[in-house]
Amino acid sequence: MDLTSDHPFWTLKNGLLADFPPLASDQSCDIIVLGAGITGACVAEALTADGHDVIIVDACDVGHGSTSASTALLQYEVDTHLIDLIKLHGPDHARMAYQACYESIDILEEKIRSLGLEDCAFTRKPSVYLASVKGHVPILREESEARRAIGIEVEDWGESDVKSLLGFSRPGALCSAQAAEVDAYRLTIGLLKTVARRGGRIFDRTRVTRLDIDKSGVLVRTDRSSTIRAKRVIVAMGYQTQTLFDTASCVNLQSSFAAASEPLEEYQRWWKSCLLWESARPYFYLRTEAGGRAIMGGEDVPFRNATARDKLIPRKSARLADRFNGMFPESGMEISHSWAGTFGETHDGLAFIGPYRKHPLCLFALGFGGNGITYSVTAAEILRQEVRGHRHDYSPVFHFDRR
């Protein structure tokens, strides 16, 4: 499955930041991480920090799967409102889900600082969740009360606040201070280089074809006639997981679309260059990037196949531009790059992290949903404890059996 269309913005902007070889000979290690996107990189960094001998394998160039297509808005809000998660799973489970995502932004910022990865353009920004229509305002007010009840500060904006601060009209909004943006591809490469400096081995352009479990542990076979022997496997392959494991029932695949503008003049920026996203579905969301461009995305549709998805890019890109220009009609914004990617939705908007009873010696880090990077950080923390033989407090929130 092609996870992205050709030429996502981040790989064009950055070029090829690192070279890793394919797996040409048999290897052995403590832990194999399948997938060298942002999730695999976060997990491998945490494991090598604990001293584990780790090998990472990816079927394509590292960071060139879903990571390269991510618009990389870092928000604690999940695709399901807190008030709806409470109805689905109860107040404790819902509270921990939101707290895990909230804390992950702080964890990631500290990791970037401590590892010297500031070139990934991690930047704190407020996040503004817009009520697209008047009927959504009561829902947003109920949502803000629920968040404050669990200790998350959020501001309620009225129509006049939106107009005065952002310059366009919406009937209301929620403003959260806990949010950020990042260059996910550059962050991934930085984490992988850290792993390599610690002795981790990284192989790309190597597809895993089979995984066997025996009394000695796990044997991974590849399309290059090479194998890896390990004590256990961590699966961070995202939507490609179902090619090896029976996880298709866990996720519904969606096609999402994104575009980057030509650089905007400073006077055309909006309030604090905040992250903007709307309550209407399909989503529309918006951020800036270090070069002065606006990055926008959404217009999701169910995934059929990569060809059908990519044919929609011109139409969806035009639609994203229309939605931007509807907010900022005097901006003169022009699209410079557009692309598409495939992502997964779960029934409750939460990731699947941890053991899956059908696959012994395997742990999963499947950051399905709109919060892929915050889930990646959370997965690294949960699985690090799992490998240590401990249970993380947030493990039950993302367990496969929560359904």
Q: Any overview of this molecule?
A:
- The chain has 403 residues and is of the alpha/beta class.
- It has a domain at 28-107 and 185-250 and 360-403: 3-Layer(bba) Sandwich (FAD/NAD(P)-binding domain).
- It is built from twelve helices and 21 strands.
- The protein has helices at 9-14, 38-49, 66-69, 82-89, 91-115, 137-149, 159-166, 184-197, 306-311, 313-327, 372-388, 395-398, and strands spanning 27-28, 31-34, 54-57, 73-75, 123-124, 127-130, 155-158, 172-176, 179-181, 201-203, 208-214, 217-222, 227-230, 232-235, 252-261, 275-278, 284-288, 294-302, 335-345, 352-355, 362-366.
- The strands form four sheets. Strands 7-8-6-16-17-18-15-19 form an eight-stranded mixed β-sheet, with helices on both faces. Strands 10-3-2-14-21-20 form a six-stranded mixed β-sheet, covered by helices on one side. A four-stranded mixed β-sheet has the order 1-13-12-11, with no helix packed on it.
- Helix 2 (38-49) runs parallel beside helix 11 (372-388), helix 4 crosses helix 5 and helix 5 packs across helix 11.
- The chain is globular.
- The mean pLDDT is 92.
- InterPro entries: FAD-dep_OxRdtase (IPR006076), FAD/NAD-bd_sf (IPR036188).
